[in-house]
Design goal:
Blueprint: H1 2-10, H2 23-43, H3 45-68, H4 75-78, H5 104-113, E1 129-135, H6 179-183, E2 188-194, E3 197-199, E4 210-211, E5 214-219, H7 220-228, H8 235-238
Helix pairs in contact: 2-3, 2-5, 3-5, 3-7
Length: 257
Amino acid sequence: MDTVNSTLAHGPKTRLPSAFYDPKGRDIIEKIGTEEWFSGYTESEEYRKLGIGALVGDIVGRMVGSAEGSGSDGLLEVAGVDGHLGKGRGGEGSIKFALSGCHDTTLAATLSSLGAFEGEKWPAYTSHLAVELFKDLSAMTEPSKPAEVAPRQSFLGSSRKSTKPSSIITRKPVQDLTAEEKAKLQGYYVRMRYNDRPVAVPGCKLPGKHLEGDVTFCTLEAFKAIADKFTPRIWTEACTQGLDEPAFPRSPEPAGY
């Protein structure tokens, strides 16, 4: 598909036979390529975990860190000494916006793993994905209190040991959270916009999992629970697990739930 598009854009000197530029033929080629690259994310939890789970886990972790005020919203990446919160290079006390460059395959893998790429074509040039965190002020009982700060956890594990037990919940699965920890996620909603178009995660359409009246606003707890299922705790170890298992799941493992 890249060859067809490139030769079409570069003029007659690089053109292929005219049959390659037939609109229906190009649609078929694009559909085959898209399914070949990304259908695995919709069918296998292991595929999602190893292919894109680390990145999705980091994104969700930053949103949870923002909700609980732990510094895991990204502040620890730009400030702080010995695990203590400082200020960002511009004097920030928290991170409100993070921008990451990526490939078209990264966008489609992320959306596919969350069940939000059904029927989509290959991401066009300049495509982008915004993952937004909203706070419902009317539902907030009290402001989030800063949690005890420990070294930032990434998909490779902690870069150094903490001398104190951490209360940070960014990488802690939802099912393992205490009632007090779950309360820190209440009143927060996540919305994804693919090329400025809101998209919905299937599991967020269920009752109680989204903002009343708009299924594209997923509760942070529900969004995290879905992402937790394919977020590797230690990515390097996840790569060596299940080597004797079949390539395809024994039972359906649909994305976005």
